[in-house]
Every structure is written in C-alpha cells, then in structure tokens.
Amino acid sequence: MSKNDRCDDLRGFIAYLKEHSKREYLKIGDPLKGDWQLAAINQTLVSKMRMPVIEFTNVENTNMPVVQNVCASLSRIAKSKGWTVPELEERLAHAYDNLIKPEVNNDGPIRENISQGSEVDLSQLPAIRYTDTETNSYLSAAHVVAKDPVSGSLNISFHRLMVCGKNRLALYATPAGHLDRIHQHNTANGVDTPIAAFIGAHPLWSLGALAAGGLALDEMEVIGGLCESALPVVKGLHDEQLLIPANAEIVLEGNLSSEELTPEGPYGEAFGYVSGVQDRPVFTVQSLSHRSDPLFQDIVPSQLEHLTMTGVAVQVYLQKSLLAQFNCVEKVFLPTAMTVYVAVNAGIRDASAHDIMSSILREQRFVKSVVLFDDSVDISNAKQTQNAISMQVQAHRDILTMPDQIGNELDPSEIDGKTTKWGVDASSYGKYPTAPVKNQLPRDLEDTLDINAIINRALGQ
User: Fold this and answer.
1) Is 51 helix (H, G, I), strand (E, B) or coil?
2) Of 177, 303, 182, 200, whose CA–CA distance to 252 is shortest?
3) Which domains does the chain carry?
4) In which order are the strands placed within the sheet that holds 243-245?
5) Could you tell me the pTM of the whole model?
6) Other Cβ atoms within 10 Å of 105 Cβ, number
7) Which pLDDT tens digit goes with each residue over 108-127?
C-alpha cells in the first residue's frame, strides 16, 4: 500500500491498522444494542487510557458494522501516512495554500447500492443513542455537503442528525455557522437547500472538512491538498452541483426544508452537557446509496475523538492566521474545549496583548477564553501555565472581558444565545522595562557534570 493510497477510504485506513498497528484496532463481536451499550464500552476503554478504533460487528437490528474512534488519535492518523503529528499539523496548514480540486467520476463504490423515493428506509442504519436523555436515535458522524449560493463553493461540515421517520431527519446546524448561513439565505429566497450527508470517511477527509475559514473556502479542495492528490468524487443524484466522495461508505441525499420544522433533542453534547429540545429544519432523504457491506461510522459525543477532531482544526487555523497577523505569536495550543493558549515573544512588540486576545475572541465562534503566555512557558504543561497565571496576572490590568458575543449553544451558561468571552494576559508582554529574571542553573552545567550517571549509580543501575 503506497502512502497516497492510504487516503483512499475508511477501509484502507482500518486495513493499515490491522496490518501495521494492531494495538490501535479492536474488533468486538459480542451481540450489543445501539442504545447506550456501544457508548458505554467506548467510555470504559477511554477511562483505561485506551482509544483504539473499535469495530462492533454484531449490533442489534442492523447488518452494518459500527466503527468508532476513527479520529481519536492524531498520532495514528499521521502514522498511516508516514508522518509525525507536527508534520500532520504542518501539512494541514499547508493545504490551505495548496488546494487541489476534486476529480469527478461517473461512478464509484458509493453507488453500488441505491434506494430512492419510497424505497428509502433509515431503519436499516444502526440506531444509536449515547446517553439516557436521548429519545430518538442519531447519526453523529455525517459530513454534510451543501453549495453556497453566493460564492458557488461547496461546503462540508459535521452535523448531528436525529432520525424522526422512515426518510426524515432533524438537522442541527450551528447558529451563524456555514450551513446555517447557506440555509438561511435559501430560506429567505423561498427555496429548500439541497444537501448530501455522507458517512464513513478516511480521517484525513474529516480533518480537511473541519478546515476553518470563510464560506468561499472549498473543503473538498482542502482535503485534496492534505491528501496530496485529488479526492475522487461523484455527482449528486438529486443535485449534480453537489459532489460526494466516491469511496465513502453511505450517503443520504435530499433537501433541507425552508419551511418544515420538527422538535429535535435532547442530545448529549460534545462538551458533556445535555441540550434541550428545539425546532430544527427537516431533512427529507430522497435517496440512500451505500457500498456493499458498508461500515457505519459513529462518533461518541463528549469523548476524546470529538474534541480531537475540532481541536486540531481550530488550532492549525489559528496558528496560521495569527502568525500572519502578529509577528510576536510563536505557538498556539488548545488545552480544553473553547479555550486557547497562545505563546508570544515578549521581545517583539507589534500589537498590544488586548489586541491579540480580542482578535481571537471576535473571529472564532467556538473560542470562549484566551490566555497569553511568554514563549518560555510550555503551554501544553499544566504546571507551567498555572504558575504563569499566578505570577504574571494582575486582574485589574490583565483581564479582558467581551460581553454580548454570539454563542454556539454548546455552552449551558449562555444567556439567550449570547455569551461573555474573556482573555487573560499571563505573559510579561509589554509589562516590564526588562523581563523578570527566572531561577535557572548554569547552562553549561551538563558539560561538566553527568547528572544521569550519578543518579543511575545511586540507584544501582
């Protein structure tokens, strides 16, 4: 298998793990129910610090195996391409500037089995629930393709879909997100929004689909740039302007209604809280296509896979955009949901700390808090970051608050869809005539003293 072939599809990625990284793949053949049991096993493995790709082959009421944790580890995704994690992040950033258009084919594996009209029956898909709050089953790993009527670009984004009928789904689109803006534009013009929701993707497709940027950015082209080759696609059955990965496992095609709404929820959200019931637009499925013996990809909300996928996309985009805006920015890190740490070089003064923080908070909807640190602080080290917050922050001077910002509905503390964002300047950036001197040993000490040898002798090694 060549390195480029490893981008072909989800099956190729799993085959690579089975052959070259067996500890990263777990096959479970015990009979299980989609209601909560799969999520419980996944959660138990995570608690034991195990995050393999799991393939459940015997799920009640479906012939489709269910695959979880596909994107839970950046390390194994990178390894499947012969890269390191930093190389993966670098190539994702590089893909923004090296877009490759998809390759349109007349046919592909995704069209091996097609049901249309009255033949469509969503009950053949695995019926999965994740918490004791959900009253309906969900599709959680659907990549939704829509065309922006303004720029003409194709947009790919992740959206949860609640099954509410034989051929009907309720779709949650993040308010003011790309799909929501496309749908609102079409609704204002009195037309439905043609969409295609594909399930079962190579993890690099998912990382490319999560690329941050404007609506004019075509994620199909980002995927091509990341995979270093054009993504093979087929045209939509109901709207030929929509393109679908030819090697995806399953695709649902139809219209997102401009008029019809239906109650959706409750749902166990990515950040660990349950969302309530709200009216959402109805996605009427006009065709269901799938490969022979399809794999059903699933993402367990609030587990590591969900946070890994979104975190790396935001982190790479922020790193790229901030480096372009501010010479002082050295590194970006996302320690947890909705929080960004930024390392700055205190010796380069091209913007104020408040300018840097407010820029991030204004531009990134899913970022609620920002903390600045000196570049001498390892921003992935909790002890070092907490020490900097304790030692460098005076609240009256170093804390920025931005009330009345648009929220994202995943934060239970929001009030009427609005949130207060904040930034903390825990750096020495612009605060002192000279930076405070930190305790440190002589730099040449290791040249005259073999510390490891002394310790090993004392331990009898």
Assistant:
1) coil
2) 200
3) 83-298 (2.30.110.10), 326-425 (3.40.1670.10)
4) 103-105, 232-235, 243-245
5) 0.77
6) 13
7) 999 999 999 999 999 999 98
